[in-house]
Amino acid sequence: MKTEEMSLWSRHLAKLLVANLFVVSCMFFHNAVTTLYVVSIGGTAAYAGVMLTCFTISALVMRIVSGQLLDKQGRRKIILFGLVVYAAATASLTIPFLPYLPVARALQAIGYSTITTGLSVAVADVSPIPKMGEGLGYYILTNNIATALGPVIALWIYSLAQNYAVVYYASIALLAIAFIIMLFCRYETDRDFFDRKQSYELAVLGERAIRAEQQLEEKQSFISSFLEKKALPSTLCSIFIYLGHGAIVAYIVLFANSISIEKASLFFMLQAAATIVARLAFAKLSDRYHPLFSILPGAMILALGYFMLMKAPERHILFYIGGAALGMGSGIANPALNAEAVRYVPQKRRGAASATFFMSNDIGIGTGGLLWGTILDRSGFRPVFLGCSICIFISIALSIFFFAGKKKAAA
Fold first, then answer.
1. 229-403 matches 11-214 in CATH topology
2. Which site from 9, 121, 197, 329 is most exposed, i.e. has the minimal number of CB atoms within 10 Å?
3. pTM over 0.90, yes/no
4. Where are the domains of the chain?
5. Angstrom distance (rounded) from CA 137 to CA 123
6. pLDDT at 53 (0 to 100)
7. How many CB atoms lie within 10 A of CB 15?
8. Residue pair 106/126 in contact by the 8 Å Cβ criterion
9. What whole-number distance in Å separates Cα of residue 138 and Cα of residue 280?
10. Do 294 and 133 contact (CB within 8 A), yes or no?
11. Per-residue pLDDT at 1
């Protein structure tokens, strides 16, 4: 008997993706103007760096806590709480009092990490297991769109208003829209939807779908109540990818200036565009085939991107091609790792699994910024990008070790 196909797309998924687009856009609104705002009220770029460190540490801590809250209190309630905290903290940033601003950024991190962890869990909840990689790929796609458009819109708003507070108020308006969307996103109580989803998963996956939910019965330690061990392989692989990405986040504009490239913004636009293309072209790859079919090609393209940046001082065009390669590689590899972190985790443990996985972002970028900054001061950019490439090859080795014997997603 032929299995009745279930579409990935539902009104629940659409609401979650739109909400995430608005929330992540706010994050890039703030990234685009906060350093400029700090300098305009008498601070320094270094002080803005301290604020970013406060944000990263708070986000990492809240990832751990929010995972358990999402599993015990429900997704929607915790996401709404995060939206309120994020909006209030953003409003308080308009107070031009430098000693308080790191506190405001830390509060923003609490709200932002809670929201984004919750939304990633919710997307996994409403995505059928055989299509989870595709669903999470679209979730990451909204992040990429926000990455490309957020800074541009924020700087455009500032150019019109000549007031940083207006940019922050505009982001609060987006958060208010996301709050209204989540008020009406009641997927957790939609029994008809979940009955159809479970029937489809059982028909496609058989016993593997049943075992995933039954594995919740084992007793949990204190640590495992916050972290999900099944997500650790993907998390470890992802940490080394984000270690490399830390150099891009912190130093790529400085690198562009050092080799006399004026249009560094084009790097980010090409990176985001390539990621979007990768997600649209390879959305179903990790669901239909073995996870390494996505992870390994994506990681190899990432390594190639860093090698191109090493050669960019001689040929500037490689700076932009390298940016596109980094976007393409991350767009293929990262969604596959994310899907493997949560695919066969019981629904009541997906909060902990997602929190565990997204810690790789905080740990990798935070550690990478410090590590590559130290190497940069002593040896320059070439060893930095070589180190980033080495991190990617470590991730490849770990991926083969953890996933080589794993079955493909759908039987």
1. yes
2. 9
3. no
4. 11-214, 229-403
5. 10
6. 75
7. 19
8. no
9. 8
10. yes
11. 44
Measured in residues, the chain has a length of 411
Structure tokens at 212: 């995933």
| CA distance linking residue 61 with residue 59, whole number of Å | 6
Q: What is the DSSP letter of 409?
A: S
Rounded Cα–Cα distance for residues 82 and 3 (Å): 39
Rounded distance between C-alpha atoms, residue 249 and residue 168, angstroms: 22
Name the DSSP class of 408: P
Angle between helices 292-311 and 317-342 (to 10 degrees): 150
The 8-class DSSP code of residue 259 comes to T
What is the C-alpha separation between 108 and 58, in angstroms, rounded?
9
**According to CATH, what is the number of the domain 229-403?**
1.20.1250.20
CATH code given to domain 11-214: 1.20.1250.20
- SS3 state of residue 172: helix
Give the per-residue pLDDT at 296: 94
**Both tokens assigned to 236:** 């470890």
What number of H helices and E strands is found in the chain? Answer: 15, 0
> Could you tell me where the DSSP H helices lie in 162-206?
164-183, 191-205
b/e sequence 336-368, b meaning 16+ C-beta within 10 Å: bbbbbbbbbbbbebbbbbbbbbbbbbbbbbbeb
Question: Which pair of structure tokens corresponds to residue 242?
Answer: 């984000």
CA angle, residues 69, 361, 398, in degrees to nearest 5: 110
The CA dihedral of 197, 123, 284, 234, to the nearest 10 degrees, is: -110
Q: What share of the chain is helix, strand, coil (3-state, %, to 5)?
A: 85, 0, 15
CA-based nearest residue to 356, from 198, 124, 200, 41:
124
* d(C-alpha 394, C-alpha 383), whole Å: 16
Beta carbons of 261 and 380 less than 8 angstroms apart = no
- Tokens for 2? 């032929």
Q: Which pLDDT score is estimated for 214? A: 47
> Beta-carbon neighbour count of residue 304 at 10 Å?
17
DSSP letter at 129 equals G
